[in-house]
Amino acid sequence: MREADYELVSAKANLRSKLSAQRGRSHNQRVRFWIITMMLILIGLSTLKLR
Amino acid sequence: MLLELAQWLAKDIRAFNVFSYITLRAVLACLTALVITFLIGPALIRRLTAYKVGQSVRDDGPQSHLAKAGTPTMGGALILTAITITVLLWADLGNRLVWLVLWVMLGFGAIGWVDDYRKVVARNPKGLSVRAKLFWQSVIGVTAACFLAYYSNLPQQTAFIVPFFKQVTYPLGALGFIVMTYFVIVGTSNAVNLTDGLDGLAILPTVMIGGALGVFAYVAGHAVFAKYLGFPYIPGAGELAVICGAIAGAGLAFLWFNAYPAEVFMGDVGALALGAALGTIAVIVRQEIVLFIMGGVFVVETLSVMLQVASFKLTGRRIFRMAPLHHHYELKGWKENQVVVRFWIITMMLILVGLSTLKLR
């Protein structure tokens, strides 16, 4: 990818990031949803033994 | 403590025998550490903010980092508290390896605490001197190494295991083992500390590596699985899976507050302690090279600093735009989130490679 193309893609990504932040979906929230998913997976895994 | 209680109750109610299984206690330790961190976290952040225990930001670093100045630091104390309480609750307290890992983790945490305290509370920008920091790290590292060497009564407990090869092991001898253990513990501790420069960058790899080491600890401590997979059998190592569970749980909950934009940083108190704990566990289960593979991000970050310093001193030129490596990519135009998530993805891949050594040998 040429340098100019890369910069365009990067600028678009930044714009998407700003828009999603305006809609209330910040990176922080995304990571917190991942953490909740991991916790639920742990609870799921504990059923391997807890029965 | 709860294990003893469960064993006592199991005399009358057999269902309590389920708590004698390490796997279940590891999962419960993870969930307990998660809950403790979630409960204490907000109050601790409020208190750190009230006491103005705010991070100072290097003025020669990326400009985007100036906004981070004043964010509460020393949040690692939260992680260490959660891990310690959890381990005291769920681990077998008669196991000396559990106490050793706790000693190393809290010892390195104390060094980090003094350093952070001097920097952010006493407003001494130098903190603990490099020499003093290394001296105390060495004291704890050598003590732990001597302890392990003294109590090792099987040859595989001090042998150097090469992954991917079933038969390739080198007996290190007591001195070789002590030297190697020292370098692994101190090296890992400082490597995690160097990596801890972006929001969430160090903690999730620590969580993932902790989880993977838990699997290795379980296998190494299980005579049947160890024999089946061609692993060195280390009596008592299985109990370390509970500590790994606690590290994973506390770290994951800490990420809740540390994800970009971070509400709190772990500081040296957390980074040094967690790195030392991972190093100690890897040494006990004889998986130093696997730790080196899985902690590739930590290794590369450390190498970037070493190469940058060496190159600048020898030739006057810099190899990277800035060291550690994460700053290099930031200055290349990557957003902080991109650097962090991409380094997480690399760690996940490396952990898969590390886990593949369970069977590929």
What brief labels describe this structure?
heterodimer; A: 51 residues; mainly alpha; 2 helices; 78% helix; B: mainly alpha; 14 helices; 66% helix
What is the strand and helix layout of this fold?
The complex is a heterodimer of chains A (51) and B (361).
Chain A: H1 3-22, H2 27-46
Chain B: H1 2-9, H2 22-50, H3 76-90, H4 96-121, H5 130-151, E1 159-161, E2 169-171, H6 173-195, H7 203-220, H8 223-229, H9 240-258, H10 267-284, H11 288-294, H12 296-315, H13 325-331, H14 336-356
Antiparallel strand pairs in B: 1-2
Helix pairs in contact in B: 2-3, 2-9, 3-4, 3-9, 3-10, 4-5, 4-10, 5-6, 6-10, 6-12, 7-9, 7-10, 7-14, 11-14
Structure, explained:
The complex is a heterodimer of chains A (51) and B (361). Chain A is an all-alpha fold and 51 residues long. In chain A, 78% of the residues lie in helices and 0% in strands. The mean pLDDT of chain A is 71. The longest helix of chain B is centred in the N-terminal third of the chain and has 29 residues. Chain B has 361 residues and is mostly helical. In chain B, helix 2 packs parallel to helix 9. Chain B has a two-stranded antiparallel sheet with strand order 1-2. In chain B, a hairpin with a 7-residue loop joins strand 1 and strand 2. At the A-B interface, helix 1 and helix 2 of A face helix 2 and helix 9 of B.
- Unreliable stretches of chain B (pLDDT < 50, length at least 5) are none
How much is the radius of gyration of chain B in Å? 20 Å
- What structural class is derived from the secondary structure elements of chain A? mainly alpha
| Beta-strand fraction estimate of chain B | under 5%
Number of helical stretches of at least 4 residues of chain B: 14
Proportion of residues in β-strands of chain A: under 5%
Question: Structural class of the helix and strand makeup of chain B?
Answer: mainly alpha
> Percentage of helical residues of chain B?
55-70%
State the oligomer.
heterodimer
Mean pLDDT of chain B: 92
Order of helices and strands of chain B: HHHHHEEHHHHHHHHH
Distance N to C terminus of chain B = 38 Å
Question: Can you tell me the residue ranges of chain A where pLDDT is under 50 for at least 5 consecutive residues?
Answer: none
Number of strands of chain A: 0
Biggest sheet overview of chain B: 2 strands, antiparallel
The count of strands of chain B amounts to: 2
N-to-C SSE string of chain A, H for helix and E for strand: HH
